[in-house]
Amino acid sequence: MDNRETILDIQHITKTFPGVRALNDVSFQVKRGSVHALVGENGAGKSTLINVLTGVYHPDGGRYFFKGKEAHVTMPLEAQMLGISVVHQELKLSETLSVAENIFLGRPFLNKARLVDWRKLRAEASELLDSLNIRLNVDTEVAHLSVAQKQIVEICKALSFNAEMIIMDEPSATLTDKELDSLFHIIDILKERGVTIVYISHRMEEIFRIADTVTVLRDGGHVGTMPVADVNREKLISMMVGRTLGEEYPKLKAEIGEIALEVRNLSAKKLLHDISFNVRHGEIVGISGLVGAGRTETARAVFGADKRATGEIFIDGEPVKINSVIDAVRNKIALVPEDRKKQGLVLIHSIKHNVSLVNLKNVCKRGLLNDELERRMAEKFIEVLNIVTPSGEKEVRLLSGGNQQKVVLAKWLAVDSKIIILDEPTRGVDVGAKAEIYKLMCRLAQDGKAVVMISSDLPELIGVCDRIYVMREGTISGELEREDFSQERILSHAVS
Q1: Cα(246)–Cα(262) distance, integer angstroms
Q2: Contacts by 324-327 with C-beta closer than 8 Å and gap 24+?
């Protein structure tokens, strides 16, 4: 039994948007000084609940109590003054200002002359960083920081408001394992100081590693709140998706044919050195390696998005010249980029516009875009890929991460791509959508397509791939067949 006092008491919160009940009678409690995980598929209501707690949205029904008193919050600043802060997945910092300026943004220390007391500002910022055992120059411009360092600045900003509860929204999405360890160390320090952490993540291993308690939301409703020690991975996933997923990494048998793509001796100035690999029709090939090993750079060089210094590319045994993205598209090569929002989609456009982006010639008549043809194409792939949407007219920015990823895939399937390179395809995607993406990859392989998957998630590489190449410092350091797969062997090639 957890005897810690309750810091947050949510009672019967309901929030409805036109046509959608985002939260439906949600009630649970959060204990002071604990790490409370909040999990659920995309669209489960997590973001809506956070927005209600911080005053972005006003609930249609229900209320919540913070530190024993009913909260009446109408804007995020009021929540901060109350003691509730959020570290968002997309960090809200001013890139051109220093670490110290960002921590106390809008709250400058003024001297008697009503001028900024820079010495005191820097000293207070340094004290906050020291309290977390972080060594960071407070005068450094935020633009020059890593994502992990920017997160620390956001946490310090929260602490500068005397935050008693910090909500961390997908904090690990872009962190390396080492950076994640540092984040967990900071969380441990905060717990010791009595700060409560609400931790939102799709990564099950993190929940079991860091959280004391977990709350599951599904379709806007509260499924359950329980100690993490009382639930296993399978049970938690079942509660999140409302069904059993069966095999977490479905591996459908495909007939592996001849080599579809072969890369020989690819090099790029100062980045890649003598890269050689191949992938066959019907095969899923993984590319592993630590951050900075050159995985994304390899994909972009093959796709013609970045220039390569040397190297040859063969498709079905024939040499091809790929000096641009247009060359790649002509040769039926597709790239699903790591950052789908910036590089894979036009977020303010509809699903149908995004699906037709690479295939405009087939949805035009006499040089003009034909709306009916475009609509039919979108509807086809909405059905084939099971994209959850009322219609193809919906803006892509309003879709969940998993459905956005499906739209990127639809764009390339619309031009009948034969070689599909996926860079971190399940990053920021919930467990249910992950399973769908794995199945889709297997179906593509069954259709004879060659699939390359770059991933930092070793279990998914092991679960889905037929072969795995490992990269280290811009070179291929190892190749493993399926019967030889293990996390230990992959890591040995990545670091030795």
Answers
A1: 35
A2: none
Separation of alpha carbons 22 and 46, rounded Å: 9
Whether the domain at 6-241 and the domain at 259-495 fall into the same CATH topology: yes
Edge-first strand order for the sheet with 419-423 is 333-336, 419-423, 450-454, 284-289, 467-472, 475-481
Question: Is residue 329 within a helix (H) or strand (E), and if so which, with residue range?
Answer: helix 325-330
Please check whether residue 128 is in contact with residue 156, taking contact to mean a CB–CB distance below 8 angstroms. Answer: yes
For the segment 371-399, what is each residue's pLDDT rounded down to a tens digit? 888 899 999 999 988 888 888 999 998 88
Model pLDDT, residue 243: 62
Q: Considering the chain, what percentage of its residues have pLDDT values greater than 70? A: 98
Give CA–CA dist 467/475, Å, rounded. Answer: 17
- Residue for token pair 């949600």: 26
Distance of CA 190 to the CA centre of its chain: 24
Placement of tokens 């397509």 in the chain: 449
Please state, in angstroms and rounded to a whole number, the distance separating the CA atoms of residues 324 and 335: 13
What is the distance between the alpha carbons of residues 219 and 404, in angstroms, rounded to a whole number? 18
Q: Specify the fold of 6-241.
A: Rossmann fold (3.40.50)
If you count DSSP H runs as helices and E runs as strands, how many of each does the chain have, helices first? 16, 22
Amino acid at 6: T
Check residue 395 and report its DSSP letter. B
- Report the distance separating Cα 22 and Cα 281, nearest Å: 43
Residues whose CB is less than 8 angstroms from the CB of residue 391 and which lie 6 or more positions away in sequence, other chains included: 351
pLDDT digits (tens, 9 = 90+) for 36-64: 999 987 778 898 999 999 999 999 999 99
Question: pLDDT of 22-31, one tens digit each?
Answer: 899 999 999 9
Q: Would you list the DSSP string of 203-228?
A: -HHHHHHH-SEEEEEETTEEEEEEEG
* Predicted local distance difference test score (pLDDT) of residue 1: 56
3-state secondary structure at position 193: coil
Helices (DSSP H) in 70-176: which residue ranges?
76-82, 99-103, 118-131, 147-160
Q: What is the mean pLDDT of residues 326-353?
A: 92
Tell me the CATH number for domain 259-495: 3.40.50.300
**Do 68 and 11 meet the contact criterion of CB atoms below 8 Å apart?**
no
Residue 31: other Cβ atoms inside 10 A: 17
Residue ranges of domains in the chain: 6-241, 259-495
Model pTM score:
0.70
